[in-house]
Specification:
- The protein has two domains: about 90 residues, no CATH class; about 200 residues, no CATH class.
- A hairpin with a 2-residue loop joins strand 7 and strand 8.
- The chain starts with a helix and ends in a 10-residue tail after the last helix.
- Helix 6 packs across helix 12 and helix 8 packs antiparallel against helix 11.
- It is elongated and about 70 Å long.
- It is α+β, with helices and mostly antiparallel strands.
Length: about 325
């Protein structure tokens, strides 16, 4: 598989560089700007860009004692970013184990998130283990609560505020691993992030790591939501026609991607409370949202934790838990 992928991406076969302190003899001056792939003794790879690959190799040799292989192709300096990203996405999608961090959908190895939620708990949560225990909210910053109080009170005066709270709560409970345990450290919810608009307002927004993954917006006529979700679980559950399936349900699939979440993501928009509720209570779409959120938490902590609104998080989580425990609350499946 490796040789076929390398050839398709325009790379020559790997060269053995085991123990070599320099690769200057392999790359002539004036032909050293481009994309390279490193090979390691354990079979993993690393994709990078360099204006001078021989200098980058010297740096990598200091970092990686198990570096054994190298392949390189010339790329104009102005195309390095786009080509590096294309190569990473192609190789990751094909199942190659990469040591890259940037542009990756899945970050491998031990991460700080593992200290808060163990890898065993992460796996069990993704499988839907109902016996997992979250714990109480750990956000007790009274200064933060004072700063956010006015925005939360303002939000609750808006049209359809209670419905917005319900949609937010369903998202938090169903798609964030251990939401109380990970609150503010790995995800935040901002209240009225742009203030009040003349027409539409963004009621609230959930950011996981550095990516805005869920937004509720609306006006006096109703609400809408925008969600970023992983694509691979949708393909697994709905088949190759997953996008048509969603669009037939009158959802908008935009294909929008943010850099932190990598290539395995898209944006789905729903219009109207009932329409949005179906999306947030369907096992098919919830699994895809959960996968992306877990991946992002494994990348690192939440961006701008001081923007978190704990009152909004508290109210939304309580509302959703009560709703889901009510036998009269219908969890509908998207058709």
């Amino acid at each position: 598989m490796t040789d076929h992928l390398l050839s398709a991406l325009g790379f020559p076969p790997f060269q053995d560089v085991t123990g070599q302190t320099s690769v200057a003899r392999l790359h002539r001056a004036g032909q050293r700007c481009g994309i390279y792939i490193l090979g390691f003794a354990d079979g993993e790879r690393y994709v990078g860009q360099a204006v001078d690959v021989t200098k980058r190799y010297l740096n990598h040799r200091k970092t990686y004692a198990d570096l054994t292989q190298l392949t390189f192709k010339c790329v104009p300096a102005g195309e390095l970013d786009a080509e590096e990203q294309r190569c990473i996405h192609t190789l990751e999608a094909a199942g190659m184990l990469l040591r890259n961090f940037t542009h990756m959908s899945v970050v491998r190895g031990k991460r700080p998130f593992d200290e808060v939620v163990t890898p065993e708990e992460q796996d069990a949560w993704l499988r839907g283990n109902a016996d997992l225990q979250d714990g109480e909210s750990h956000v007790h910053d009274e200064s933060l609560r004072r700063r956010q109080r006015h925005k939360f009170e303002q939000l609750m005066t808006l049209p359809h505020a209670q419905d917005a709270l319900r949609l937010l709560g369903l998202y938090l409970v169903s798609t964030l691993p251990f939401p109380n345990r990970t609150e503010q450290d790995f995800w935040i919810v901002t209240c009225l992030p742009y203030g009040l608009g003349k027409d539409d307002s963004v009621y609230c927004r959930v950011t996981v790591n550095m990516q805005e993954n869920f937004s509720v917006y609306g006006n006096e006529h109703g609400l809408g939501i925008a969600i970023h979700t992983a694509v691979s679980p949708l393909k697994e559950l709905l088949g190759d026609e997953w996008q048509r399936h969603l669009e037939e349900g009158e959802y908008e699939v935009t294909g929008h991607q943010y850099k932190p979440g990598g290539h395995d993501q898209t944006q789905i928009n729903a219009f109207g409370y009932e329409h949005a509720k179906i999306l947030l209570t369907s096992g098919q779409t919830l699994q895809a949202m959960a996968v992306l959120n877990l991946r992002l938490m494994r990348r690192g902590g939440a961006y701008q934790p001081g923007s978190h609104c704990p009152q909004l998080a508290d109210a939304a989580l309580v509302d959703a838990i009560q709703a889901l425990q009510n036998p009269e609350f219908e969890t509908e499946q998207a058709e």
